[in-house]
Specification:
25 helices, single chain, 6-stranded mixed β-sheet, 12% strand
């Protein structure tokens, strides 16, 4: 990591303790976690944290970093398929030096640790993002394709635009941002609402389709965004502010489904069923969800688990998906201070134990939350104001003439450095202190800190090439896919499981969703049967002459129309579950086509039973013909 360069502004006092420039203990020492560098490629177990607090602002904390680390080590050690003798000898073979137990264990964990030991890392260099103006947006209708075709023809089919030298007239959302988040590091993105934090996180999370143009380079361990989106989609996970889950499923069912969908192949696990059970118990225990495991997740309309517990369910689901780069956009919104700290501690566990690269944006982060991050990035008006160690951010802005008040949290100070009415100027810097985002960006570009960041970016890109990390990721993902050893097409698929396996798991989940809403289904069935009896009674004892022919045809028309209108009630469930489908598709859990097929098959049985009973009651009550003669 960056702990050995002058950008950290730290010194060794000779006794082994690392201190900041002002002599105070460093953030790493406060966290009790001096994380080792991942540039060497070894995946070492995260060190335990000393004096881990169990209370925050008078509220109990539900997440234990130490307990979560030990549980992951246990499951990794128990259910990974053992190495062969040749692999053991290859690990021990070296340059003839003495046997090193630490090196041997780290190499064994790297080779035997799936699905936890993937090292990817994230680097972005001179990243600029362009988008359309808000006034150019409109709601698409049935006539939209025809309107676009006519508009395209009226503008000469794009030929004048190609010959024009004026270039694109799109809005610049992000400008020349650079940084690196190595595996095992957490980056905190700070900025006021509208500063461009969400745009940056969406692009880093490989959600790029909503933007007009993206310049610069983004690399995920040597993989391009196009390659990740096509074949390795599940390695990069983006989580928006809202928690998207099926509200009628319990916490246990939600996590069980995620684990089953991303279950590695038998080539990597010696006991898949035992792995599933132990992994589920580990997630419930390490994220403090064991007490609400059998409670429905719920949403804004259906009461379930609390907001903090729902956030931790999202984290556990993303851990079960096996993503190596996690991007969390403003996910602490609506949480109290204790729940927010639990949430970030959960992210710290996944980052340390699974060697993930984690990028998080948080508004109004407390000091305890801020100290859990390795790096921080300050953004305003789409411009990069700072990127580097979290412990050096205050010193950098103080060198520019912006003073941090004693009782203000570091995150609030960094967010408000561009607010002229909030910040304090160091005496003597009244004229030289930057006043706008452009001034801060200019000083950042001219500073030695940015030069160090660019050196780190270049060094990490070079290290990734030397490690052949992209090839390592491809081989690792191919190993996890079912049937990839015999089917070459499966190796190019972003999904871990096969279509039949997805169908079975989705059918199990769809059945659980229907059982969770069984009271709604029972009410709808009773409503239709009662309606059939009422309408049938209205048309009872119709005359057998031609006078009753018109009324009988009206009964048949009503039966067809009523069944069609009742089916429209499924639209609400289909629309509400669409966001969950989008999220789980981005995690490569299942193919959306398989979900559509499963929903059709699952709805067929209850609908057939309901329609049969409805038709039988209406037919008999109306006294329609009993025979075909």
């Amino acid at each position: 990591m960056s702990g050995n360069n002058p950008f950290n502004s730290r010194s060794d006092d000779g006794g082994g303790s690392i201190t900041d420039r002002d002599g105070s203990p460093s953030s790493d020492e406060l966290k009790g976690n001096k994380r080792q560098s991942s540039s060497s490629g070894s995946i070492l177990p995260a060190p335990e944290r000393a004096d881990e607090p169990d209370m925050s602002f008078g509220e109990p904390l539900h997440v234990s970093v130490t307990r979560g680390t030990s549980r992951f080590k246990s499951i990794q050690r128990t259910y990974s398929k053992p190495l062969t003798l040749d692999e053991e000898e290859e690990m021990m073979a070296g340059d003839g030096s003495a046997f090193d137990l630490t090196t041997w264990l780290s190499g064994r964990q790297q080779q035997q640790g799936p699905p936890f030991a993937t090292r990817v890392g994230l680097v972005f260099n001179e990243l600029s993002v362009y988008g359309d103006n808000v006034g150019d947006r409109h709601i698409a209708t049935l006539a939209t394709p025809f309107w676009k075709l006519a508009k395209f023809a009226a503008h000469g089919f794009g030929i004048p635009k190609l010959l024009s030298k004026s270039g694109d007239k799109h809005r610049l959302l992000l400008k020349n941002m650079s940084g690196v988040v190595e595996d095992g590091e957490m980056l905190l993105v700070l900025g006021r609402p509208g500063a461009g934090c969400s745009t940056l996180l969406r692009v880093l999370g490989n959600h790029r389709k909503t933007y007009r143009r993206i310049d610069g380079n983004v690399s995920y361990g040597g993989l391009t965004p196009e390659e990740v989106g096509k074949s390795y989609r599940g390695q990069v996970a983006y989580n928006a502010e809202e928690d998207m889950h099926h509200p009628t499923l319990t916490v246990r069912q939600t996590l069980d489904f995620a684990i089953r969908c991303k279950m590695p192949s038998t080539r990597m696990l010696k006991d898949r069923s035992g792995y599933k059970v132990e992994f589920l118990d580990t997630l419930l225990d390490m994220y403090g969800l064991a007490g609400c495991a059998d409670t429905i997740v719920g949403n804004a309309f259906l009461r379930g688990v609390s907001g903090g517990e729902r956030k931790r369910v999202s984290i556990a689901e993303q851990v079960a998906s096996g993503a190596s780069v996690d991007v969390w956009d403003g996910s602490t919104r609506g949480l109290d201070s204790s729940s927010a700290l639990d949430y970030v501690r959960s992210l710290r566990i996944t980052t340390d134990v699974l060697r993930k690269s984690t990028v998080v944006s948080i508004y109004q982060a407390s000091e305890n939350i801020y100290e859990l991050f390795d790096k921080v990035m300050v953004v305003d008006e789409g411009r990069q104001l700072y990127f580097g160690p979290a412990s050096g951010a205050v010193a950098y802005f103080e060198s520019l003439g912006i003073q941090k008040p004693l009782r203000q949290t570091t995150a609030d100070f960094l967010t408000g450095v561009t607010q002229l009415g909030e910040r304090r100027i160091v005496p003597g810097f009244e004229k030289s202190a930057p006043r706008s985002a452009e001034d801060f960006e200019r000083m950042w570009i001219e500073s030695t800190h940015r030069s160090i960041v660019m050196q780190q970016v270049s060094a990490f890109e070079k290290q990734v090439q030397e490690d052949a990390r992209g090839h390592e990721i491809r081989e690792f993902v191919d190993q996890t896919k079912m049937g990839a050893e015999s089917n070459r097409l499966r190796r190019r698929s972003p999904y871990t499981s096969t279509i039949p396996y997805q169908f079975i798991q989705l059918f199990r989940r769809e059945t659980a969703i229907m059982w969770g809403s069984r009271y709604t289904l029972a009410f709808r069935t009773a409503y239709q049967l009662i309606f059939a009896a009422i309408v049938g009674a209205l048309f009872n004892q119709l005359p057998e002459t031609t006078d009753g022919a018109f009324l009988r045809s009206g009964v048949l028309f009503f039966a067809l129309l009523f069944s069609s209108l009742v089916a429209q009630a499924e639209m609400v469930a289909a629309v509400s579950g669409r966001l969950v489908t989008y999220k789980q598709k981005s995690l490569s859990m299942f193919h959306p086509g398989v979900l559509a097929l499963v929903q059709t098959v699952a709805d067929m049985v209850p609908n057939l039973i309901t329609i049969a009973l409805f038709s039988l009651i209406l037919y008999e009550a109306a006294g329609l013909a009993q025979t075909a003669g």
